[in-house]
Amino acid sequence: MSLLDRLALQVPIIQAPMAGVSTPQMAAAVSDAGGLGSISVGATNAAGAAEMIQALQRLTDAAFNVNVFVHEAPRRDADLEAAWLKALTPLFRGFDAEPPSSLTTIYQSFADDDDMLAVLIDRAPAVVSFHFGLPDEGRVRALKAAGCGLIATATSLDEASRAEKAGMDAVVAQGFEAGGHRGVFDPDGDDAQLGTMALSRLLVSQGRLPVIAAGGIMDGQGVRAALSLGAVAAQLGTAFIACPESAADPAYRAALQSDAAHHTVMTRAVSGRPARCLRNRFTSWGEAAGGQVPDYPVAYDAGKALNAAAKAQAEGGYGAQWAGQGAPLARSLPAAELMRTLARELAA
User: Fold this and answer.
1) CA-to-CA distance for 276 and 252, rounded, in angstroms?
2) Please, are residues 277 and 21 in contact by the beta-carbon 8 Å criterion?
3) Where do the DSSP E strands lie in the chain?
4) What is the mean pLDDT of each run of 10 residues along the chain (348 residues)?
5) Which of 65, 117, 156, 335 could form a disulfide with 38 if both were Cys (CB 3.0 to 4.6 A apart)?
6) Contact 255, 241 (CB under 8 A)
7) What is the CA 9 to chain-centroid distance, rounded?
8) What are the φ/ψ torsions at residue 48 (nearest 5 degrees)?
């Protein structure tokens, strides 16, 4: 029996685990509405993850997904990091602030985080998903022994094949349209930048794992199109940003309703890895500045500090306002109502 059969979703929709957006309240609403709600714990430590999972388990008895980041350890380059901070200094001073004196690795990869593994084994969510890469054989075996179904993001047939060999139960086909961080295993490698339609069909026809289509899908018609390609479900992220349960701040929500929704860009400036974002003051500065950016998540240390300095001066244009190319189709509905709307559109 496949993972999706075991989950018995009433609506073949997975709410994407977008860090900085997804919350236990949103995930519970989606799962209770018949889909698969998700939270991301890649931007917190094991204690924070345990708190989020426990909060979600108090809110719902339905299945949900917990997402972790499996990125390579950043390559530290003191000269590059100093140059990056120097380039950012005028931006900080424009908000009466100074940049950090140095940068740190703010997020630990699941590949090296035994405490996070222990939390996942203890809380045993129905699904654990992986972004940026794949866990080792021992971690896969331990999670499966705990009863967790496993899903990995893939942006190519090669990554999907590696996911199959690693023991994944399904694969998310992340098209280039998708908002948030690009899931490529090697951010400096050759990215074919396949769109959702081409990638999903490729993985369905030439891969062996069940495929979950992701990227640019915003309504029931888009979900139906994904299913017609042979996907077993669709994963939607940007569609849920405007929900009241999301953690998006007012500036993020306002940007999503502005002309910026029509102009998403792929940028490394915010975090150090390619990520699709609403065009804002930070992404525009990054495009103009060019040059090499420190590795993820080291660069993100600077990006978060700059956003905090800007927000302290009531400027919201320096945040990580992740969004996919379908952003203009976003709807400000409670998550449960959005799920009912998507289900009606899918059935129409």
Assistant:
1) 14
2) no
3) 13-15, 37-40, 64-69, 127-131, 149-154, 170-174, 180-181, 211-214, 233-236, 264-267, 275-278
4) 90 96 98 98 97 98 98 97 98 98 97 98 98 98 98 98 98 98 97 98 98 98 98 98 98 98 97 98 95 97 98 97 98 98 97
5) 65
6) no
7) 21
8) -65, -40
